[in-house]
Write a structure and sequence with these properties.
single chain; alpha+beta; Beta-Lactamase; 5 helices; 16% strand
């Protein structure tokens, strides 16, 4: 989006003219990223819908959707985590692969599964799954709830939704930038989660991601 610069009274001094123009550029500098994020969100939501209709097992479709989300939004990590009932352990059902080899990807998901299963202290995902709400960490280093899995990450967004009576599904994403997740991206993540939820709710054979075979298309 671009707007014409406002007409500046030519009788004003050059200093005042520059101040008027500077204020307009400050507006544009704030507005353009917001517009870009909104467009990124629209594209991500649309492509996730298409990914879910591919002829693949559900958990592979979810992983593909996460890779699509990352490629469009620039988020560095993404995962879907499910909790079927209170008291049960949370289960990692999909994770972004982002071009990693299967060997490296498998090591990564093993590490993530271990973090999710850890009972040492509840992290962001466990807290959000229990509450059924959302959480945004603008700076993970400043929040005691953050459980580090990738030391390069600087901000995190996690949002959950209900799947029937007691089951819940969470989408967790992270970024190397502090303050990466604003209201636009929160709305995007919430919308994506609501698109994915009906598919997960109807899937009877959900397994931990490390136990799921990888199709050739994802190698």
């Amino acid at each position: 989006m671009c707007r014409n610069l406002p007409l500046v009274d030519q009788s004003l001094s050059w200093r005042v003219k520059i101040q008027c123009i500077d204020r307009e550029f400050l507006y544009l500098n704030a507005e353009l990223p917001r517009t870009l994020r909104y467009r990124q969100s629209e594209i991500a939501i649309d492509l996730v819908g298409k990914s879910l209709n591919e002829d693949l097992p559900l958990q592979h479709r979810l992983g593909w959707a996460l890779d699509v989300i990352q490629s469009v939004t620039g988020w560095q990590r993404g995962a879907f985590v499910c909790k079927r009932a209170p008291g049960e352990r949370s289960m990692l059902i999909a994770h972004a692969q982002t071009g990693a080899s299967w060997m490296d990807f498998h090591k990564d998901i093993r590490n993530v599964e271990a973090l999710i299963a850890s009972q040492a202290r509840p992290g962001v995902i466990a807290t959000v799954l229990d509450s059924g709400s959302y959480m945004v960490l603008d700076d993970v280093e400043a929040d005691s709830l953050y459980v580090p899995g990738d030391l390069a990450m600087r901000s995190e967004l996690c949002v959950a939704t209900s799947l029937g009576k007691s089951c819940r599904l969470a989408l967790n994403v992270e970024s190397r930038q502090r303050g990466a997740f604003d209201r636009t991206f929160l709305a995007c993540a919430t919308h994506i989660l609501k698109r994915v939820a009906p598919f997960v709710h109807l899937e009877a054979d959900l397994r931990p991601l490390s136990a799921v075979a990888v199709p050739a298309v994802l190698h």
